[in-house]
Amino acid sequence: MTTVDHLRQVRLGNLRTVLLALVDRPGSRADLAARTGLTKATLSNLTEPLLAGGILVEEPATLAGMGRPSKPLRFHPDGPVAVGAEINVSHLAVETLGLDGETLERRLVPADLRKVAEDDVLDRLAALIHEVTGPRPLLGAGLAIPGVVHDGVVVRAPNLPRLVGAPLAADLGRRLGIDVELDNEANLAALAHLWPRHLAGEDFVHVTADVGIGAGVVLGGEVYRGVSGFAGELGHVVIERDGIPCTCGSRGCVERYAGLDVILREAGRRRLDSLRKALEAGDAKALEAVRKAGEALGVGIATLTNLFDVPTVVLGGSYAVLYDHLHEAVRSEMDGRVLAGGERHTRLLASPLGEFAVVRGAAGLITRRAVQQPERLFS
What is the H or E stretch that residue 215 is in? Predict the structure, then answer.
């Protein structure tokens, strides 16, 4: 490595440190110097290009105690944003996220996409993204799908078979004119609980459901994907050896007993909001459908907990919406099946992000990349 290359790497490392500090909270140059260990001169040198590029903004001077007034730096409210997008079995969703982690816009559109071709899905999604983002400069887009992906291509998606083999990242990128990164929706929902804030610690499993069920496994503050990206396929953990046939080709999978479509069918409801109202009204059929699903889900979660020994399980997506009526059945099965045993060992929580965790994580994939690789902010 040449001296020039070395100096460039040092500068990028310092810039990354400053950006991470600003993600944590705004601060003056003096405050940032104290938090990062960098000199004020270095900070001025690093932040001037960010101010000139509309990435940061300097607020008016404020007097706090003795000394000179400070001018806090923060991410520009009209600066570039990241797009998070989700293609799921029953909906499309989009969210825009600033570098400071603030959500600007979000939208969820119900749609049955099980038999819809790739071009139609992506045309609808691109139109929704344009509608939500408007003229804002874009850092890129993260795209979530309930399936296994590799190099921007869908490798396996039992509930969206027409998208298997589709280069979704490249095809959506062409429609938008930006880079798109594709990942599994359960992994991205888990990432939303890690970046930009730790919402469930550094070791947990995040479980989310639509028609299928996915689990994002987080160990040591990183999403664990496994060798081939199949880690966390909770929906296809077998809980009944000769049970109901599944779209994956197996039998007795968790999602055939605890998927949202199963719950709705058993409850005699068509939509999640209708089911929620029925539960709140004490409808016996709805309560029984959710209880049975909770028991099946609890068996599957107990298996994951025994495998990974995590202290926290987070229920997200539709499970977060149904949490008040679901968690007792889940907890009962976990308590009887988790080897470590007991609520003291494994917490069961509802995600504070609810059904938007996936798109928030997809957008967070892009903002985290921009902060950790700051050269992208100037490309």
Answer: strand 213-219
Taking the alpha carbons at both ends of the chain, their separation in whole angstroms is 22
Tokens of 131: 């509608």
What b/e readout covers 157-177, taking b as 16+ CB neighbours within 10 angstroms? bbbbebbeebebbebbbebbe
Distances (CA, A) of 52 to 47, 57, 82, 154, 217: 9, 9, 20, 40, 40
Asked if residue 97 lies in contact with residue 191, where contact means CB atoms within 8 angstroms, the answer is no
Q: How much is the pLDDT for 344?
A: 63
Q: Is the peptide bond before 196 cis (omega within 30 degrees of 0)?
A: yes
What is the SS3 assignment for 320-364? HHCHHHHHHHHHHHHHHHCCCCCCCCCEEEECCCHHHHHHHHHHH
* Spans of the chain, pLDDT less than 70: 1, 61-69, 341-344
How much is the pLDDT for 42?
92
Of 188, 197, 96, the residue nearest 146 (C-alpha): 188
Give the whole-angstrom CA distance, residue 170 versus residue 181. Answer: 9
Joined tokens for residue 372 = 């950790």
Q: How far is CA 17 from the centre of its chain?
A: 24
Cβ neighbors of 1 (< 8 A, separation 6 or more) are 9
Q: How many residues does the chain have?
A: 379
Region for 364 from its dihedrals, namely left if φ exceeds 0, alpha if ψ lies in -120 to 50, beta otherwise: alpha
